Amino acid sequence: MAMNANGLCLMEIDDFNPLKGQTWSLFWPEETRTQVADAVNRAAEGVVARFTAECATAKGTLKVWDVVVAPVCDATGRPAQIVAISQDITERRRVHERTALMSLELSHRIKNVFAVVDGVISLSARSEPDRTGFVDKLRRRLNALGRATAYVSPLDVDRAGLPVIPTLLGLLSTLLEPYGATMGAERQITIKGADCPVGHSATTAMALVINELATNAVKYGALRSPAGHISLTVTHVDASVGLVWEEAGQKLDAHPKSAADGFGTNLLHNAVIRLLRGSLQRDWLPNGLRISITIPMATLMH
Q1: Spacing of C-alpha 197 from chain mean position
Q2: Which residue, 274, 154, 280, 282, is CA-closest to 205?
């Protein structure tokens, strides 16, 4: 085993001579050695391996390491040596842990706010029973915003200790889950296509858009019965993301084709055009409905 000057500095080793000839895995805590050995074995087979683990320095300073173990091949293409590149990510992990704690507290407060607002709406509706339809729509939209907010405030981390970035397909699945099965043989909603990151600023508008489409499908379209089906496809074209919402398998005669000035329709258009800076096209097909939405990638990721 050999170690360069940077490695000696990071591991706080003043004299490397006593360590020459020792097995690298012995430097690691016993509970980590199986993981280290697996990475070395994969590299010996010609595969690059990676792991994250804690390990103290020679002077006892506990650090978190992101380690890449890679083969160095000879002229025949077979591994002749193994090199390990270790990055000290201790401070990065600490920053994330502090951020995660703050995010957890913020998420808790936001959930409480949504719960309070939902309660106020319910109490207000009792005194005006003729507004029940409006109240139900408002609560569904509020719940959609709550699910979207919860999704884009993740606490998961990847192997390097960095926050997991929310994605569009994940957000769509979260928003549509209450409206029907999205997995398995009984699913009525299929979500497919190319994934991409989604930012905090775009989630509110996306929640409004998807909730409006799904609500209309429940009231007038494909989700009125188990025979209906919705296909939501995501595509990437140049610097834009395309969403195609297709309803089929259920008569759509009751769908309000002429309700162009309705509140829900206006909300849908405003969310796509004004908030997301995109475009929307609705096409009535012989056996269903297709809605095509285009959103700039930069807006979606913001």
Answers
A1: 7
A2: 274
What secondary structure, in 3-state letters, does the chain show? Answer: CCCCHHHHHHCCCCCCHHHCCCCHHHHCCHHHHHHHHHHHHHHHCCCCEEEEEEEECCCCCEEEEEEEEEEEECCCCCEEEEEEEEEECHHHHHHHHHHHHHHHHHHHHHHHHHHHHHHHHHHHHHCCHHHHHHHHHHHHHHHHHHHHHHHCCCCCECCCCCECCCEHHHHHHHHHHHHCCCCCCCCCEEEEECCCECCHHHHHHHHHHHHHHHHHHHHCCHHHCCCCEEEEEEEEECCEEEEEEEEECCCCCCCCCCCCCCHHHHHHHHHHHHHCCCEEEEEEECCEEEEEEEEEHHHHCC
pLDDT (tens digit per residue) in 10-48: 777 777 777 776 777 778 888 888 888 898 899 888 889
In tens, the pLDDT along 130-153 reads 666 666 767 666 766 676 666 666
pTM over 0.85: no
Cα 69 from Cα 283, distance rounded (Å): 53
Q: CA-to-CA distance for 96 and 91, rounded, in angstroms?
A: 9
CA distance 27 to 224: 63
Dist CA 114 CA 10 (whole Å): 47
pLDDT tens, 81-131? 888 888 888 888 887 777 666 655 555 565 666 666 666 666 666 666 666
Distance CA 81, CA 85 (A): 13
